[in-house]
Amino acid sequence: MGVILATSRSFSDGDIDLVARAAAAGHEIVRGPAHHDLGELAPLLANADAWIAGTGPVTAAHLDAGPRLKVVARYGVGTEAVDLDAAAARGIPVTNTPGANADAVADHAVGLMLAALRLIPDGDRRVRQGDWSVRRGRELGAATVGIVGFGRIGQGVAGRLSGFGPRILAADPFLDAGRVRDLGAEPTGLDELFRTADLITLHAPGGQRLIDAQRLAGIRPGAVIVNTARPDLVDESALAAALRDGRVSGYAADTLDGDTAASSSALLADDLADRVIVTPHLGAQTTQAVDNMGSMSLDDALAVLAGRTPAHPVKGSS
């Protein structure tokens, strides 16, 4: 029997019993902490044959603590926290779950758009305080929406928006203009998108800064920004300043810098509460997405342990 270490909080927490699936294949699931603290994980890694890894770091030191590791199956899409070079040097393949949560995140992005444009959370707070005065919102169908990053999630957002009828722009350096048009959006450059769009939704990979003071200086006045991607895409202090001076009218995000209960993000300031909406990584948290991510990561781990090629290898890993 092999040991599969799972450090994602929601692994096998959907409708599919993945622990039973692993047992049927002759393997045991062992749980570990999602934060990937090496001191806590080292004893578990020492006996692990496969690792279904959450969003915490996967470093060379983690891999050295797992001498039996044959595969790291990332539970999710992003691999910025995984040292792919270290994995390749040790002959450990890394996999991920592309597209597993795309529908869930696209749904959530559109939900945040509506919440920000129609001031829904602020209205709820004020009613509970006895204030029934009305703040006027804006209609999604009357907006020009700019989608930054036009992969699976960005395309899913465009498809969902088609029923509302807004003008849809998309900026993606990896897609040609014809393909963007075929997918229901107008191709544009990033700076032009920021100058033109009433609502900007971020679906680009992390490891880059897309919104900083310079770009905010050229943004369409009164724009709303939605971020269901990564916190490092946004300079939060610069954005807080833009919210205060009115250049940006609202921000809705599923992630913040720090991503902890003790986050000191400038966007959590009390005076911005009526313009900032934050959810605690709800984007991928649907039963369907959890089942998809869990099934894909477990199936790839089982494939490697059985001597087969995994279905979703990450480029640059072994």
Protein architecture, described:
The structure is a single chain. This protein is of the alpha/beta class and 318 residues long. 34% of the residues lie in helices and 16% in strands. The protein is built from 12 helices and 12 strands. The chain has helices spanning 18-24, 38-45, 60-64, 84-89, 102-117, 120-128, 152-161, 177-182, 190-196, 213-217, 236-244, 287-305; strands at residues 2-6, 27-31, 50-53, 71-74, 94-95, 144-148, 167-171, 186-187, 199-202, 223-227, 248-253, 276-278. The strands form 2 sheets. It has a 7-stranded parallel β-sheet, with helices on both faces. It has a 5-stranded parallel β-sheet with strand order 2-1-3-4-5. Helix 1 (18-24) links the parallel strand 1 (2-6) and strand 2 (27-31). Helix 5 (102-117) crosses helix 7. It starts with a strand and ends in a 13-residue tail after the last helix. The model has no long low-confidence stretch (mean pLDDT 96).
Unreliable runs:
none
Specify Rg, calculated over alpha carbons. Answer: 21 Å
Strand numbers in spatial order across the main sheet? 8-7-6-9-10-11-12
What is the β-strand count?
A: 12
Order of helices and strands: EHEHEHEHEHHEHEHEHEHEHEEH
Distance between the termini: 24 Å
Portion in strands = 15-25%
Main sheet specs = 7 strands, parallel
Relative helix content:
25-40%
Mean pLDDT: 96
General form: elongated
Tally of alpha and pi helices: 12
- The structural class is alpha/beta
